[in-house]
C-alpha cells in the first residue's frame, strides 16, 4: 500500500513520501488501526518498519489535535530496553517532526549519562522515549509525571523482559491512567509477551508478520582465511582487481564501519557508511546514492541489514562475521534476490575460524576457502 493512502495528515504524508513510498506489511495493517485508536500487539522481525509503524500515527495525532505541551506531564511515552534503541527511535521521530511546521518536542532519556541535563530538558516534552530504570529515577525526582499519558508504546518488549525489566515496567504501568491507547511491539510472541499483553492491552488487534525464509541457492559463497590487519588491503584489492561497481560490506560495529569507509575513500574507492549513529536523513541519502550507482561501496552494520533491499545487488562482503548463523543468512541474502545470482565473500581471521565452521554447519553449506595471506596486493 502507498503511504499516501493511509490517511495521514497532508503535511506529514508529504514528508513520509520523501522517505518511503510503499508500506511494509506490518505498517499496512497496524497504522490504520492505530489511527483509529485501537490497541495493537505487533509481532514482526527487526527491520520490518515497526518504529515508523507507531511513530507516524502518534505524530499525526499531535498535528490533528494541535496538542500543546503541559509542563512536565508527558502525553506519549515510548519504553525501550536500551540506550541505543532510545537514540534510534528519537532519530526517526525527529526525521519526521523536523520537516513539518508543527512544533513537537521529543526527547530520549536513558542511563549511563548524567541525570541533571535530562531533568532540565524534560520541561514541556510531548513525546518521551525512555529506558525503564532511568524513567523511574526521573519520576522519583519529580522531573516527569505520567498521570496524563494517553499513548503508551512498548518497543522490543521481548528484549525488555529478557533484560529483566518486568518489575520496572509493572511499576511504570501502575502510574499511568487507566484510559489510554497501548501499543506493544515485539520480534517474538513468547509466554512473557502474552502475559504483558493480558496486563496492558484491551481487545488488541494482533498483527503477526511471519518471517520469510531467506533463500541462498543462487548465491556463490567464497571465504578468505586472512589476518585482521590484511582485511582492508584485501577488500580494496578485490574491488579494484575485479572492477566491482556495487558492493555491500558488513562490519560488526559502527566504529569499524566508519574506519573501513574512511580507508576506502583514502584509497580512491568511493564509499559511505550506514549505521545507527547516522541520522535517518544521512542513512537514506547513503542508501539512495548506493542504489543509484553513485557510491561504489556501502558499509553497513547488522542493525540495518534487514532494511536494505536492492534487487540486483551483485556482491556482499562479510568484513567481519556476524554473531549468529541467522544473521549471516540475512546478510548474504541481500544478494541473489529476485532470481538473480549473487556472490558473497567472507573474510575469516584466525580467531573467527571456529565460528565460521559453526555458521557453515548451521546453514548446511560448506564454503570454498582461499588463503588470503598468500595473495600479493
Highlighted features:
377 residues; alpha/beta; Rossmann fold; 2 domains; seven-stranded parallel β-sheet
Radius of gyration over all CA atoms, rounded: 22 Å
Provide the spatial order of strands within the biggest beta sheet: 3-4-2-5-6-1-7
Tally of extended strands? Answer: 14
* Number of separate structural domains: 2
Would you give the CATH topology of the largest domain? Answer: Rossmann fold
CATH superfamily of the largest domain: P-loop containing nucleotide triphosphate hydrolases
Helix content: 25-40%
What is the C-level CATH assignment of the largest domain? Answer: Alpha Beta
Biggest sheet features: 7 strands, parallel
How far is the first residue's CA from the last residue's CA?
A: 49 Å
Question: What is the mean predicted local confidence, pLDDT?
Answer: 88
Please tell me the CATH architecture of the largest domain by its name: 3-Layer(aba) Sandwich
Number of helices: 14
How much beta, percentage-wise?
15-25%
Helix/strand/pairing category: alpha/beta
Q: Unreliable segments (pLDDT under 50, ≥5 consecutive)?
A: none
Give the helices and strands as they follow along the chain.
HHEHEHEHEHEHHEHEEHEHEHEEHEHE
| General shape | elongated
Amino acid at each position: 500500500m502507498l503511504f499516501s493512502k493511509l490517511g495521514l495528515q497532508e503535511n506529514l504524508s508529504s514528508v513520509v513520501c520523501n522517505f518511503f513510498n510503499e508500506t511494509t506489511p506490518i505498517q499496512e495493517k497496524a497504522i490504520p488501526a492505530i489511527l483509529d485508536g485501537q490497541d495493537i500487539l505487533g509481532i514482526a522481525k527487526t527491520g520490518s518498519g515497526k518504529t515508523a509503524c507507531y511513530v507516524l500515527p502518534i505524530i499525526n495525532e499531535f498535528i490533528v489535535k494541535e496538542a500543546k505541551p503541559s509542563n512536565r506531564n508527558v502525553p506519549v511515552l515510548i519504553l525501550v530496553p536500551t540506550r541505543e534503541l532510545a537514540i534510534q527511535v528519537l532519530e526517526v521521530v525527529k526525521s519526521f517532526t523536523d520537516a513539518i511546521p508543527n512544533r513537537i518536542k521529543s526527547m530520549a532519556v536513558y542511563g549511563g549519562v548524567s541525570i541533571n541535563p535530562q531533568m532540565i530538558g524534560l520541561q514541556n516534552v510531548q513525546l518521551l522515549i525512555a529506558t525503564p530504570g532511568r524513567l523511574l529515577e526521573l519520576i522519583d525526582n519529580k522531573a516527569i509525571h505520567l498521570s496524563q499519558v494517553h499513548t503508551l508504546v512498548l518497543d522490543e518488549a521481548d528484549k525488555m523482559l529478557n533484560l529483566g525489566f518486568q518489575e520496572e515496567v509493572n511499576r511504570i504501568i501502575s502510574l499511568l491512567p487507566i484510559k489510554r491507547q497501548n501499543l506493544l511491539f515485539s520480534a517474538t510472541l513468547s509466554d512473557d509477551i502474552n502475559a504483558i499483553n493480558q496486563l496492558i492491552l484491551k481487545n488488541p488487534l494482533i498483527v503477526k508478520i511471519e518471517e520469510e525464509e531467506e533463500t541462498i541457492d543462487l548465491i556463490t559463497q567464497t571465504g578468505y582465511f586472512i589476518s585482521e590487519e590484511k582485511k582492508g588491503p584485501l577488500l580494496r584489492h578485490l574491488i579494484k582487481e575485479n572492477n566491482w561497481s556495487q558492493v555491500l560490506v558488513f562490519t560488526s560495529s559502527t566504529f569499524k564501519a566508519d574506519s573501513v569507509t574512511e580507508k576506502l575513500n583514502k584509497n580512491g574507492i568511493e564509499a559511505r557508511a550506514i549505521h545507527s549513529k547516522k541520522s535517518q536523513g544521512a542513512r537514506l541519502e547513503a542508501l539512495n546514492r548506493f542504489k543509484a550507482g553513485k557510491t561504489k561501496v556501502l558499509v553497513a552494520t547488522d542493525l540495518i541489514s534487514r532494511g536494505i533491499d536492492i534487487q540486483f545487488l551483485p556482491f556482499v562482503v562479510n568484513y567481519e562475521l556476524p554473531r549468529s548463523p541467522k544473521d549471516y543468512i540475512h546478510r548474504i541474502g541481500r544478494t541473489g534476490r529476485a532470481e538473480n545470482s549473487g556472490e558473497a565473500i567472507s573474510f575469516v581471521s584466525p580467531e573467527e575460524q571456529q565460528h565460521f565452521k559453526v555458521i557453515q554447519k548451521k546453514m548446511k553449506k560448506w564454503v570454498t576457502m582461499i588463503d588470503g595471506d598468500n595473495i600479493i596486493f
